[in-house]
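Technical note accompanying the year-one report. For the benefit of new consortium partners, we illustrate the data format agreed upon in the data management plan: each record pairs a sequence with a structure-token string. No post-processing was applied to the example shown here.
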Amino acid sequence: MRKSVFLIVLLGLFPVLVMAQGTPRAEVFGGYQFTHFGSSGASENFNGWNASVTGNLNKDFGVAADFSGAYKTISGVSVKAYTYTFGPVVNLNHEGTFNPFVHALFGGAHLSASLSGSSGSTNGFTILAGGGADAKVAPHFAVRLIQVDWEYFHFQGTGFSKNVRISTGLVARF
């Protein structure tokens, strides 16, 4: 019985998986990120991951949810920065092989640090503004060649605006 239900569901999804060329309804991105955090006194480079889900409302406009994590150990202190942002995406050539896009994302950030069993953390506001380019490599897959974002953070009354995030990875298009 379970196998029959699974087979029926799979066959029902098959037309969606092989739909004709055109604008995908959804895109799922996952990949590597390099983040440069800068402030008036110091700057640091972090490595981490970036993931997003975009729902395309039409060939030009979509809405994205973007999540990321950046990590570094500085003088024995383990630092972690996470973002969760949402906002509009404008696609500049979605139906071609090469798709440039721009976005403006708004949301939250979580910063934590730990050293020898002691830790602290704070939550704040973040803005990501930028864009990138995807290159289609198969009907349902693309490579995010580059995504560059200016990143603004606001923690406990202080803003940090000299930050850049660069991402690359794979995109599944449905």
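Partners are asked to follow this layout when depositing records. The domain at 21-173 is CATH 2.40.160.20 (Porin).
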